[in-house]
């Protein structure tokens, strides 16, 4: 049977072509524009629950909190570190800069800590930046980190606040915690 | 970087595929449009009827909604969820975590038969009973070098109470804080860089000099010291028993009333991440035939560990004194250096150990299973280098090769080669 080709109205054809062009444009944008959003050098923002009176931490203090070397804040709340699952770029950069470790070394650290009898609890792992922010917002003692693009910083994200690291805020010159 | 490229590329191809699908000639649509044209009037009537029905239903719903709903009691907001504890080891039950360590290998020394060996099978368990109370147990299966049998040893059993970072008390059988190595690396050779521990830290139940386990109370914690990072350790236990075929740790009954007392301090300064400096001092009254012997053990260590380097240095003095007469000093030290090159970690260790042959306590010692074939017990001098390389297959298994060369007082030197596969699961 001969196929009936070309009976679609011109307007419909143009509309479908428009969608196709948009799809191509989206693919192009995701290919070339999206990577720049996670370019190396973007700040990593350390966040805590908004009720936490701490406004600034040193890198050494940050390391103690995430390696379970310090279990309570000055307020008495239990420290509850949270981070993205292994492989996330911000996690890789954070572990390298703050703890001097990679994922495997972090795992071995906590295994050895348990084996030697230390009371060390590894950070909770979640699957997305929004889950990190959600956990920090809901747990008074929580501390986490997200890349700057995932933190609005305009007060629209209730329950969390950003900390200064070694006295500098994310985006300031000299800020050490970057991807 | 590969993922960063592949994902957008796939997205691009997906976008192109979608565009191609959308732009393909819609022939089937055109055919069905022709066929449907004959039945158009009936369909229109049905659709109009359907629209009327739906409008009537919408009106009904709007009328219902205009009536204010009865107030609903608002439940109090749930408390913020408690932080979930992530297991460092396998969680086999809601409370119980289990990790198993093991090692096998082959070893050959001049003067002894080359053998394959089963090193140890170590079952390590922890459980949290409450926010502040936990238990720790370790069951160890080890071969006996004298008859090749495999014995079972409760290596550790501890009930722990952690009040805060400044006070944690443990009761039960513990690894003594005599030096750094004994608590940093117990059994579980996977965690050690080398194939075995330095000779000075040989396990006491296999003839080692120092008391590696004890029964009693151990208290540890931080000392408020800012960036200095000071920590303390205080231990009080039954002490060590001496005698042929005697279990060193006095698990049920102490041989005397006096208790061993051990105290230690160490610092981890913020400014030098990975550095630990510390010392310990322990006193015990030993019960052996004849007059009581006072034992004082002093250790000092300087350790630096990061992801690339491991530098371990320790020195030990074990002093036995009689009520009347001379003191007998056993001394030892080791230095170990290693550097990681990706999965490979070559290492070097030099160790020295010297025990006086006339020390009255060592006459009641068990044969030291860690000693080279020509080394009788641990009386005498042993010193020499070990070189080796560790290769980590993955995060759970490692292969090690180690060559030892020990000089022994009044005996021929020992050369030995050990290969070991250590793993955890």
- List segments of chain A where confidence is low: pLDDT < 50 over at least 5 consecutive residues: 1-8, 27-38
CATH fold annotation of the largest domain in chain A: D-Maltodextrin-Binding Protein, domain 2
Quaternary class: heterodimer
Strand content of chain B: over 45%
- The tally of strands of chain B reads 17
CATH class of the largest domain in chain A: Alpha Beta
Characterise the protein shown here.
The complex is a heterodimer of chains A (179) and B (425). Chain A is 39% helix and 15% strand. Chain A has five helices and seven strands; from the N terminus they run αββαβααβαβββ. Chain A has two domains: 1-37; 44-165, D-Maltodextrin-Binding Protein, domain 2 (3-Layer(aba) Sandwich), CATH 3.40.190.10. The model of chain A is unreliable at 1-8 and 27-38 (pLDDT under 50). Chain B has one domain (90-424): Porin, CATH 2.40.160.10. In chain B, 15% of the residues lie in helices and 46% in strands. In chain B, strands 2-3-4-5-6-7-8-9-10-11-12-13-14-15-16-17 form a 16-stranded antiparallel β-barrel. The two termini of chain B are 31 Å apart. The interface between A and B is large, with 58 and 64 residues.
